[in-house]
């Protein structure tokens, strides 16, 4: 018996060449890949477009037209006034309600999505109370609420300049004591303006809304369940395009750590679904002025505290205003 070895051994032949795909199968794979990529890009486009729509809506709130005036609403005589924002870039319209022989003035700073009437507060009742306390009262519209030359809302960047213009206006009319009474974003705007002026003697801040990443996402999440990231990053890229304002231009960190030189009264509800009350608590806790105070109201809602607790609301405000030094005695 013999065996064959070495170079004489027969070798089994194998074919290592892969089978070629038919042209039809290659075309099918390309079609599937194209469809998958199209769906992915379409979903990305829709996701970004949704955020662009949200940013546009937030920048362009729907504001109802004026329906009354101080005379019709509360039998208060008034003047229609126009003044400039502090930088002179915008004309602001409002009503000035004079008190008899008074050099004290309250400037009412309305909230987002409202005009100077802000009916749900209700602002006419606040103005009437202030007038009965012998304060002159200025009610005015921020640019986003203008009936003649509407502008975008900027979370306080431009609004603070308009508020500073209002403060300058009443100062020029002889006000020796100026109190800013703000609601929601109007309160947050007042806090931003307070960083830049020495003409304010006190602030009353109801349901303070300060635009920052946390409150922005909180309000969006209340309406639609979007992920925090990358939603915030996308919105931060879109806002400068749609309203010319970056969140970095809102001094929210400075506001949250600032100790204001004038007395402040913070009023906030624990069931506020737009401006979480711990932010107001934090800012209030920084204040060292002996006349500063805060009132955190259990189960009260955003900007509805006066409606829900009118007597206690006015009692606390009256006590706060009563502690202010008389402008006639200032500097004595």
Layout of secondary structure:
Blueprint: H1 23-59, H2 70-74, E1 79-84, E2 91-97, E3 104-109, H3 123-132, E4 136-140, H4 159-172, E5 177-183, H5 185-193, E6 202-206, H6 213-223, H7 228-243, H8 252-257, E7 264-269, H9 277-285, E8 293-297, H10 305-308, H11 310-322
Helix pairs in contact: 1-7, 4-5
Q: In words, what does this structure look like?
A:
This protein has eleven helices and eight strands. By secondary structure, it is of the alpha/beta class. It has two domains: 68 residues, no CATH class; 216 residues, Alpha/Beta hydrolase fold, catalytic domain (Rossmann fold, 3-Layer(aba) Sandwich), CATH 3.40.50. Strands 1-2-4-3-5-6-7-8 form an eight-stranded mixed sheet, sandwiched between helices. The longest helix is centred in the N-terminal third of the chain and has 37 residues. The radius of gyration is 31 Å and the shape is elongated. The N terminus is likely disordered.
């Amino acid at each position: 018996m013999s065996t064959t070895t070495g170079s004489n051994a027969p070798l089994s032949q194998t074919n290592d060449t892969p089978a070629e795909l038919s042209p039809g199968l290659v075309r099918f794979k390309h079609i599937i890949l194209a469809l998958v990529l199209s769906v992915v890009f379409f979903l990305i486009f829709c996701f970004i477009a949704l955020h662009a729509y949200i940013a546009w809506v937030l920048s362009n709130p729907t504001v109802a037209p004026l329906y009354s005036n101080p005379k019709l609403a509360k039998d208060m005589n008034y003047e229609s006034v126009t003044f400039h924002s502090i930088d002179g870039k915008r004309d602001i319209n409002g009503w000035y309600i004079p008190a008899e022989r008074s050099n004290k003035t309250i400037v009412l700073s309305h909230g987002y999505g409202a005009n100077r009437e802000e009916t749900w507060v209700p602002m006419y009742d606040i103005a009437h109370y202030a007038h009965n306390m012998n304060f002159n009262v200025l009610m005015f519209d921020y640019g986003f609420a203008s009936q003649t030359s509407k502008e975008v809302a900027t979370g306080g960047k431009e609004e603070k300049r308009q508020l500073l213009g209002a403060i300058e206006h009443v100062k020029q009319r002889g006000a020796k004591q100026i109190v800013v009474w703000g609601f929601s974003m109007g309160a947050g705007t007042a806090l931003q303006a307070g960083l830049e002026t020495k003409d304010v003697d006190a602030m009353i801040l109801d349901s303070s809304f300060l635009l920052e990443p946390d409150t922005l996402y909180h309000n969006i999440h209340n309406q639609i369940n979007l992920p925090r990231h990358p939603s915030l990053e996308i919105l931060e890229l879109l806002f400068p395009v749609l309203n010319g304002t970056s969140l970095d231009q809102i001094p929210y960190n400075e506001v949250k750590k600032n100790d204001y030189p004038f007395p402040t009264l913070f009023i906030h509800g624990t069931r506020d679904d737009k401006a979480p009350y711990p932010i107001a608590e934090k800012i209030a806790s920084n204040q060292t002025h002996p006349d500063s105070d805060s009132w955190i109201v259990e189960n009260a809602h955003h900007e509805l505290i006066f409606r829900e607790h009118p007597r206690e609301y006015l009692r606390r405000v009256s006590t706060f205003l009563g502690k202010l030094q008389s402008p006639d005695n200032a500097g004595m």
